């Protein structure tokens, strides 16, 4: 090995280099001036300054990243810093979306009489992405069963879970229900509003969740039935409910149905932290077509099935959107 530095000697080192044997501190170069074979230290330093001892960051046997952690850049850096070239991870869930309905057209096209823009495809894809899912396909089917079957077959080949919207109720053209029910799908109505008609099928081992087609019904159904499961599978934290007082009364809520109203948080009073909500107000009515109004909502207001009305000031449970 190298001979130790004698007392009074110095050696130039770069940031991060090992300390030469016999040295006991590092003096920043800006605190020195170099001469011919000599160096003048213009500011004294104590032993140990700017020296990093082995093990001050992590020692053998220390827990570096806990199992189940969603890897962020800081975790990847720590793993690489100790020389790990790879770690075993769960891959992201792969999700596919199929919207249905002859009346739907893609945004950007000219609407003809009887047509509306398809918002459910992009909404479900965005919701999946926001909750840790890798979206592998977004497709739209007409009310033709053959077309839906073809898209369903492609979706189940590449995805771990498939979401459909529309075609699950009691109309004349319920393509999702008509195709999936003979395949063992279960369809019925749940006691909630919006989002009453629901379906669940397992196709070639892949769960297919079938939501109603009204845009707000689709989004609320996703939040209630799919978001908790997907976040768990992605290792993301749960979205917890909390309570807030109503700013204004809810005059009527249907008995026997759990209602999810769209709500906007009322922020704190002067002197309070600006992010601290003090109440919640209803953004719009219960209509499942009020998709633009939902864009202004921060939360879902969860009104229990047995409650038919609530006065201003009553505490309600809310779920963050």
In short:
The chain is of the alpha/beta class and 321 residues long. It has 6 helices and 16 strands. The strands form 4 sheets. It has a 6-stranded mixed sheet, sandwiched between helices.
Structural commentary:
With about 325 residues, this protein is an alpha/beta fold. Helices cover about 20% and strands about 25% of the residues. The protein is built from six helices and 16 strands. The chain has helices at about 75-80, 120-130, 145-160, 175-180, 215-235, 290-295; strands at about 30-35, 40, 95-100, 105, 115, 135-140, 160-165, 185-190, 190-195, 195-205, 205-210, 240-245, 260-265, 275-280, 300-305, 315-320. A six-stranded mixed beta sheet has the order 6-3-7-11-10-8, with helices on both faces. Strands 9, 12, 13, 14, 15 and 16 form a six-stranded mixed beta sheet that branches. Helix 2 packs parallel to helix 5 (about 215-235). It is elongated. The N and C termini lie far apart (about 65 Å). The model has no long low-confidence stretch (mean pLDDT about 90).
Helix content: 10-25%
What is the string of helix and strand elements? Answer: EEHEEEHEHEHEEEEHEEEHEE
Q: Count helical runs.
A: 6
Write down the overall mean pLDDT. Answer: 91
Placed side by side, the strands forming the largest sheet appear as 6-3-7-11-10-8
Pairing-aware structural class of the strands and helices? alpha/beta
> What amount of the residues lies in strands?
15-25%
Low-confidence stretches: none
Give the biggest beta sheet: 6 strands, mixed
Q: Strand tally, please?
A: 16
Radius of gyration: 30 Å
What is the rounded distance between the termini?
Answer: 63 Å
Q: What oligomeric state is this?
A: single chain
**Which word captures the global form?**
elongated
């Amino acid at each position: 090995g190298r001979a130790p530095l004698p007392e009074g000697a110095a050696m130039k080192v770069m940031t991060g280099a090992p300390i030469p044997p016999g040295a006991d501190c590092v003096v920043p170069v800006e605190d020195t001036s170099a001469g011919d074979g000599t160096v003048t230290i213009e500011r004294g330093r104590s032993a140990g300054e700017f020296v990093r001892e082995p093990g001050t960051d992590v020692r053998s046997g220390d827990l570096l990243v806990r199992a189940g952690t969603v890897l962020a850049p800081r975790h990847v850096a720590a793993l690489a810093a100790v020389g790990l070239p790879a770690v075993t991870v769960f891959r992201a869930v792969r999700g596919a979306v199929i919207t249905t309905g002859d009346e739907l057209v893609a945004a950007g096209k000219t609407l003809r009489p009887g047509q509306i823009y398809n918002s459910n495809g992009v909404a479900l894809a965005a919701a999946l992405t926001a909750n840790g899912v890798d979206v592998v396909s977004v497709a739209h089917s007409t009310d033709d069963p053959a077309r839906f079957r073809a898209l369903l077959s492609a979706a189940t080949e590449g995805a771990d879970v498939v979401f459909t919207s529309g075609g699950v109720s009691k109309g004349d053209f319920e393509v999702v229900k008509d195709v999936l029910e003979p395949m063992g799908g279960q369809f019925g109505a749940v006691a909630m509003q919006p989002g009453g008609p629901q379906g669940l099928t397992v196709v070639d081992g892949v769960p297919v969740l079938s939501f109603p087609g009204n845009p707000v019904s689709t989004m609320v159904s996703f939040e209630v039935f799919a978001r908790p499961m997907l976040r768990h599978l992605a290792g993301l934290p749960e979205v917890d409910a909390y309570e807030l007082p109503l700013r204004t009364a809810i005059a009527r809520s249907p008995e026997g149905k759990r209602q999810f109203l769209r709500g906007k948080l009322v922020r704190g009073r002067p002197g309070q932290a600006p992010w601290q909500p003090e109440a919640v107000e209803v953004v719009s009515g219960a209509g499942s077509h009020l998709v633009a109004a939902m864009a202004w909502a921060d939360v879902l207001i969860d009104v229990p099935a047995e409650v038919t009305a609530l006065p201003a000031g009553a505490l309600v449970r809310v779920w963050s959107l």
